[in-house]
Amino acid sequence: MSDTKIQVIRPEGMPQPAIPYSPAVRAGDWLFFSGQSASDLVSGLAPEAVVPAAFPHYSNAIGKQAAALYGRVGSIAEAAGLDPKQVVRVNQWYAADMKSESYKKGDLTVNNKRYVQEKGKFFQTVSPPSTGIGVRGHLVEGAKVEVDFTARWSKDGSLPVKVSAPDVAKPAAGHAEGVRSDHWLFLSGDLASDWKGNWGSAADGGELTALAPEARASGLFWGDEAVGRQTDYILGRLQKVAEAAGTSLDNAVKAYVYLSDPADYCAFEDVWAKWFPDSLKAPARALVPSVEIGAKGCLVEIGMELLMPEAAHLKKPVAGGWAPKSKEPAAMRGDDLIFFSGLMATDPATGLAREAAPTPGLPYFGNAGYQQMAYILQKAKRIADAAGVELKRIVKGTLYFTDLNLYAGAMDALKEVFADADHFPAMTAVEVNRELWVPGCGILADFVLYDPQEG
């Protein structure tokens, strides 16, 4: 029988914030970090991460914060007995300038150069597969970046192996296109960019774009949907990296998709359905709108986790509990993990479920964050029941809010689920730019459950 134990990792002396908080959670061969920012976990930003008001230009805020947060990450890794080389995915959530009245979708407002420099000091050999997304807000006032990590202990003690496709443009930030660990493959979030763009050229009439030529839409005719061309281009590149590792997108168990504009959903979904025509064979998917994508003209970013062919039989959809309206299963098992597709407090008949909605004449009589998260967790429990696993075996959650004022109520609902559990999941929470897929829905939850199988 596989090890079923779930263990909280907390470095000695680390403060406990006034919320349920596990710095990291170990589940068998996996280690999931909560989102880490440069906070002291008690009052806000840590003193060593603050730019002195008397010398505002002598240091860089995101650089100082990155140094502080990677110091914390190092302490957590040490407490877990983890070598940083065992990290297989890094997610960065950068503070974009979305609160400015002049902000427009497609703007580039993040400068992550000094963050990347600090990250390079931590990952000195291979920079793991990476996603970098601009968001509206963080839980810590003044935070420029929040970062979470997934790591794995290989069965034979080997380190993840870098994977690269020879004819795919390499990420400008220097992270790996993918890494393989045992029968798992982790692919970086990819954009439809060649990392060159048309700066200094006469292409596209001189309009600046970071897009690869093959991913550009002319805009000359009706129906020339830019996000569709970009999605197809990205999936083609991810397929090349998967093939370089010896597998294919047919073996994908989880996809992370970010769209800058919710209005692009239908065009994106059309292309997605061509690549994954059978929803029950498609990967589980977190589909997140209203974020900033980090290259001029790019509208979508996609990252994935896959199994190798020898483990393809360990990919199994979870049928029952909930049937998504979109092109994905409710959840997908990949070996000892169950990846949920993104959940909101929705009902097929009403949009926002009545149980999660305020009473029109009594808008202040409820707690919207609690109501929506409680409904999401009820939906998640039905899916978990269909998979034959307890909901309290969630080991990682990523929560996307339209307004972080919903956070406290949402955490109250989560605390109830884990009241008698021996762990609280690793959690990341960020605020997107005010709009999810269904009007009134303020929370999108992405969960991972640990459920090791015999053999």
TrEMBL record:
<protein>
    <recommendedName>
        <fullName>RidA family protein</fullName>
    </recommendedName>
</protein>
<dbReference type="GO" id="GO:0005829">
    <property type="term" value="C:cytosol"/>
</dbReference>
<dbReference type="InterPro" id="IPR035959">
    <property type="entry name" value="RutC-like_sf"/>
</dbReference>
<dbReference type="GO" id="GO:0019239">
    <property type="term" value="F:deaminase activity"/>
</dbReference>
<comment type="similarity">
    <text>Belongs to the RutC family.</text>
</comment>
<dbReference type="Pfam" id="PF01042">
    <property type="entry name" value="Ribonuc_L-PSP"/>
</dbReference>
<dbReference type="InterPro" id="IPR006175">
    <property type="entry name" value="YjgF/YER057c/UK114"/>
</dbReference>
